[in-house]
Specification:
The structure is a homodimer of 214-residue chains. With 214 residues, chain A is of the alpha/beta class. Chain A contains eight helices and five strands. A five-stranded parallel β-sheet of chain A has the order 2-3-1-4-5, with helices on both faces. Chain A starts with 29 loop residues before the first helix and ends with a helix.
Chain lengths: 214, 214
């Protein structure tokens, strides 16, 4: 029933206010919901090329967290493109807007107290940095996870048959072939999925979360 | 640890898939998280003109729900315009996109298992109907609440001084003055805030939720 005097969500996030729009400080503080859930909110941002293992590892992390009583929620790039971002394509400009919106949605979902596990190729470092800033301004931990393996390994996995089509020229702007991927220079967590099993990668990620959100 | 065989979130939402985007059915079902939280997810969509009392009633509803151990999360039109929708203005077209995105975000947040309390003027019936469809496709209750009072009462409250500025012509496209408001024809809940106290309105809303989410 207590309402802290300085709600964590009362700060105006970056991006600047629109005309005549007042930031509402009366909204319940995230801390109250974190207390309810018995956990700390965070966004775990998994970045990497198609086939690197982002979704596979994320699914196992989500499963383990939920099984241990944590409210974890996985937000997937493909799924977001079916709804919120259905109006966006794959040009560099649209990818930037795709990630901008994804970052804002992660922040909102994490503001409920949840641990968001976001899996987005997010090839551009500047876009990821912008997501981090949005989280930092809101006081929500942003944990960048670089999920990687050699391109030829990702291409051999080719879970959606997209590399094959990109090589045939059927898909342009494909990350790793027609468009570049800028690896994180200093990610919180680094997972080489050509060396780690799914279980080992999930365990490493969760162990790191345990320390960071303690 | 159980993963139901038909995850609630495995259905492709309306809007149609983008190119080469595969809907990921491996995501944990909402039901698992609802079980964890001991509640049913829903979106409570509060619509009404500026000054009708949406935010005031919503704040009290959120406070009561959280105090009783429910994970409730308030999503406010103004706050969303600081972040996700900072690129949008107030033309009819931008209002429609504002509400489209808001509806998608409500669906995502409710998919965590939370009760979302959304306060958006949302003046156009077709936009609200689209939000309802998005929720129905995902199997999430969409509870439309019409928060209203006579225009002169809302104008006399004028919590942000906006009516005064709209009357002076400083704000165009202002709902109720320069732009129309289409009231819901069949809302789940109707709250006349010129007759109900804040407490009574909040109590009526929560009582209705209790029955609908039982």
């Amino acid at each position: 029933m207590s309402t802290p005097s300085t709600p964590a969500s009362s700060k105006s996030p970056p991006g600047g206010p629109s005309r005549d729009v007042v930031w509402d400080a009366g909204i319940q503080a995230r801390g109250v919901r974190e207390g309810l859930l018995g956990q700390k909110a965070a966004t775990v941002w998994m970045t990497g090329i198609s086939g690197s293992g982002k979704s596979t590892v994320a699914a196992e992390v989500e499963r383990r967290l939920v099984a241990s009583g944590r409210l974890a929620y996985r937000l997937d790039g493909d799924n977001l493109r079916h709804g919120l971002n259905a109006d966006l394509g794959f040009s560099a400009e649209d990818r930037t807007e795709n990630i901008r919106r994804a970052g804002e949605v992660c922040r909102l979902i994490a503001d409920t107290g949840a641990i968001v596990i976001a899996t987005f190729i997010s090839p551009f470092a500047a876009d990821r940095a912008a997501c981090r800033r949005v989280h930092e301004a809101a006081g929500i931990p942003f944990i960048e996870v670089h999920v990687h393996c050699p391109l030829e390994v990702a291409e051999s996995r080719d879970p959606k048959g997209l590399y094959q089509r990109a090589r045939k020229g059927e898909i342009k702007d494909f990350t790793g072939i027609g468009q570049g991927y800028e690896p994180p220079s200093d990610p919180e967590i680094d997972l080489d999925t050509s060396k780690l099993s799914i279980d080992a990668a999930a365990e490493a990620l969760i162990e790191s979360l345990r320390k960071r959100l303690a």
